[in-house]
Amino acid sequence: MKRVTLLRILVILGAIGLLEGLIHAGIVPRFTIIPPSEMASALAAILASGKLKVDIAVTLTNVAVAIVASMAAGVTIGTVLQRAAALRRILDPLFATYYAIPMYAFYPLLIVVFGLGDVPQICIGFLLAVMAVIINTLNGLDRVPRVLLKAARMHRMSALRTALRIRLPYAAPYIFTGFKLAVAYSFIGVIGAEFITSSRGIGYEISFAYNNFDNRLMYGLILFVLALVLTVNMSLHAWEKRLMMRRQR
Amino acid sequence: MSPVGGDAPVHVTLRGITRVYPAQAAQPPVHALGPIDLDLRQGEFFAVVGPSGCGKSTLLDVIAGLAVASAGDARFEGQAIDGSVPDGIGVVFQEDSSFPWLTVHDNIAFGLRELGRPADVVQAKVKYALDFMGLADFAQAYPAQLSGGMRQRVCIARTLVLEPRLILLDEPFGALDQQTRLLMGDELLRLWRETGATILLITHALDEATMLADRVGVMSARPGRFLEIVTTGWPRERDSTIVADPRFGGLTSRIWTLLRGESLRALGHTGVRR
Ligand SMILES: Nc1ncnc2c1ncn2[C@@H]1O[C@H](COP(=O)(O)OP(=O)(O)OP(=O)(O)O)[C@@H](O)[C@H]1O
Ligand SMILES: [Mg+2]
Predict the structure, then answer these.
(1) What is the CA radius of gyration of chain A?
(2) B64 touches chain A (CB under 8 A)
(3) Are A5 and A93 in a shared domain?
(4) Which residues of A are less than 8 Å from B65 in CB distance?
(5) What pLDDT is recorded for position A30?
(6) Which of A66, A81, A172, B261 is buried most deeply by CB count within 10 Å?
(7) Are A145 and B95 an interchain contact pair (Cβ–Cβ within 8 Å)?
C-alpha cells in the first residue's frame, strides 16, 4: 500500500476514534450524535431487519435513473451545442449562472406537474447533474486538436462518424469528469428532494427519524448514504485515473 | 514540364493555385501561397523544400482537399479537388495526429476498420505495418508511452496501410534522429517502388530531399511560389547510399543556393548581398 493511502486511512480512523472517545467521555452529548460504533451497529441492524429495503431500493433506482438520463442528455446536448456556435453563445450566460439557481425552489412546480410519485425527485437530481455533463462535454470537445479533425476528413468520415469515433473518444476523460459530478449531484438531488415532500426513500426515512428523535435510525442511515457515495465516487475516481494514465505524456 | 517519368500520365495538376487566409481579429488577410503551377506524374517522388512559413503545409492541404484554394484549379486523377479529400489520397500530417485513446495497433487499424475491411485482412496488414515501422514491440502501448519519433511512425503506418495512390507527407521524419531518418527514407523508397504510388514529401532537410526525390521543388518565402524545380535524375532503384554519388553534393548545394536568400527573407532580413 502506498504511504499516502496508509496515512489517509490513519487520519480517518483517528477522526472516528476521537469522536468515539469524545462521546464516551461525555464531552459531546449523546442526543446530539451517537458514537460511530453505534452508528455501524445501527446500520447493520437496519440492513438485517430489511424493513427499509423498499426505501433503499426506491432511492437507488431514482438516483440511477437521474444519473443515466443526465449522462445521455448531457452528452447529446453538449455534442449538438458544440456544433451550433450561435445557439451556444445565446445560452452561455445561462450555463455560467446555472448553479446559482436553487433547484429545490422548483420542487412545488414539479409536484404540480408530475404528481407525488418518483418523478419530481428524479427531476431535481437530473437538473443538478445534467449541466455538469454538458459543461464538461463542451470542454472536452473544444479541446480536440485540429489535426485530428483533419485526419478524420482524410479518412472521409461523416460528421456523425467523426463525432462518435474521434471527437467523443478524445473528449472522454473530460466527459468522465462530468459523469463523476453527475453521480454526486444525482445523489444530492434525489435524497435532498426526498427530505422535502416524499413518502418513501432514504431521505424521507432520515427526516422521519429526525422528527421522532430516533438517533440510531437517523445516524445509521446517514452512515449508509456516506459509505455508499464515498464508495461509488472513489471507484469512479480510480477509473478516471486509469483513463488519464493512458494519456499522460 | 518534367523530364522524369515524362511519359507517365499526370496524376496531380495545379494551375494558378493561390491561398489567402481571410482576415481575423486584428490580423490582416495572409497571402500564404501561390500562384503555384505544378504537374505531378504518376509514380513520381516529388519533394518540396522552402523556408519556414512559406506555405508548404498550405499547399499540402489544398492538394489533399483539406483546404480550398482561393484561386486556381487543382485536379487529382483528372477530377477537381473541391474541399473534400478524394479517395486514394493519404496524408501524414506535420503535427502528431495519433489517436491518444487507441493502442498503437488500433491506431494503425483505424482506417482499415473505418472502411469495413474484414478482421483477418486488418490483422495481416497491421502486423506487416508494425514490423515495417519497427513498432511490433509496442503494438499494445498507447501513444503517450511512445517517443515523438515513434508516434510519427504510428501516423505514417496508419496512412500507409490504406495503400493510397497519392501519399502526401508533411515533414514526417522531423522528430527522428539522422540515422533513423536515413533508414526510414530507405523504407519509404522501397515502399514507393513496390506500390507505384505518387509521393509528395515536404521536408526541411535538403539532403533528404535530394536523396529521396526525382524532383525537388524549391519554394520562395511567403507567399510560396516555386523558384525552381530541380531534377535529380536518380535511377528508380536507389537508397540512402546515393549520398556518396559525386552529383549528390552538387545538387544539394544548388538547392541551398536557391534557398539561402529566401530563408533570410523569411526571417525578416533584408538587403542581403548574394
Ligand atoms: N489557419 C491559418 N490562419 C491564418 N494564417 C495561417 C493559417 N495557417 C497558416 N497560416 C499562415 O500561412 C503561412 C503559411 O503557413 P504554412 O503552415 O503553410 O507554412 P509552412 O511552409 O508549412 O511552414 P513550416 O515549415 O513552419 O511548417 C504562414 O505564414 C502562416 O502565418
Ligand atoms: Mg508546415
Answers:
(1) 22
(2) yes
(3) no
(4) 153
(5) 83
(6) A66
(7) yes
> Is A53 found in the same domain as A21?
no
Kindly state whether B76 is in contact with chain A, defined as any CB-CB distance less than 8 angstroms.
no
β-strands B10-21, B30-41 pairing? antiparallel
Q: Is the pLDDT of residue B171 over 80?
A: yes
**Is A130 in the same domain as A15?**
no
Same domain, A159 and A240: yes
pTM confidence score: 0.83
- Indicate the DSSP class of residue A164: I
Q: Which residues pair with B40 in a beta bridge?
A: B12
The Cα B105–Cα B131 span in angstroms is 11
Instruction: Note whether A105 and A58 are same-domain residues.
Output: yes
Q: Which CATH number covers residue A44?
A: 1.10.3720.10
Q: Is the CB of B19 under 6 A from ligand 1?
A: no
Using a CB-CB cut-off of 8 Å, the residues of chain B touching A170 are: 99-101
Residue B106 and residue B126 in contact, taking contact as beta carbons nearer than 8 Å: no
CA dist B235 and B228 (Å) reads 21
The answer to whether the CB atoms of B96 and A147 lie below 8 A apart is: yes
Cell numbers given for B120: 483477418
Ligand 1, residues B222, B225, B227, B265: which to mutate, most atoms within 8 A of Cβ?
A: B222
Task: Count how many domains chain A has.
Answer: 2
Residues A126 and A20 in one domain: no
Are A129 and A19 found together in one domain?
no
Q: What is the mean pLDDT of residues A128-140?
A: 94
Question: Can you give the C-alpha Rg of chain B in angstroms?
Answer: 19
**Peptide bond before residue A169 is cis, with ω within 30 degrees of 0:** no
Q: Per-residue pLDDT tens for A59-88?
A: 999 999 999 999 999 999 999 999 998 999
Domain, as residue range, for A158: 40-248
Which candidate, B191, B159, B153, B169, places its Cα nearest to that of B46? Answer: B169
The pLDDT value recorded for residue B118 is 92
A129 and A24 share one domain: no
Residue of A nearest to B112 (CA): A155
Neighbouring residues of the ion ligand 2, judged by CB less than 5 Å: B 57, 94
**Residue B13 Cα to chain centre, angstroms:** 16
B21 lines ligand 1 (CB under 6 A): yes
Question: How confident is residue B274, by pLDDT bands cut at 50, 70 and 90?
Answer: very low
Distance from C-alpha of B217 to C-alpha of B225, rounded to nearest angstrom? 9
